[in-house]
Amino acid sequence: MGFSGYFLITQDFINHGRDIGVLIGPGRGSAAGSVVAYCTGITNIDPIKYDLLFERFLNPDRKSMPDIDTDFDDEGRQKVIDYVVEKYGQNQVAQIITYGSMAAKSSIRDVARVMDLPLQEADRLAKLVPERPGIELGRVLRAPLEGEEA
Question: Is the pLDDT of residue 87 over 90?
């Protein structure tokens, strides 16, 4: 499908990152199903060993280039980006990032875990959040407490 350049450029900047000591994830998402990504060192996951489906990565119905999700450590990411911009040109490089949001209850449980609060306490706090979708923690924190929980 003409993606050899895509694979080779991806291999190039991943190898450069490793060469300069940047920590790079093993590969994730559908790219883990590509034996080419594995053989070129783009991923460290052997799709044959783990019986992963290549069709998740690339199939005849797909018209766009497949995604190769790559994770770099926070301190080394910019070094890799700088390398790619220097080598391939600023007009040829774009960084894609995904932002997500956490549900109110999940964020309470995650913060409680990080703060070493007992699971029972984290669950008790999370249950104070109403069950309706779209609830924001700021609103919950300003709401008056009622009943036994008060």
Answer: yes
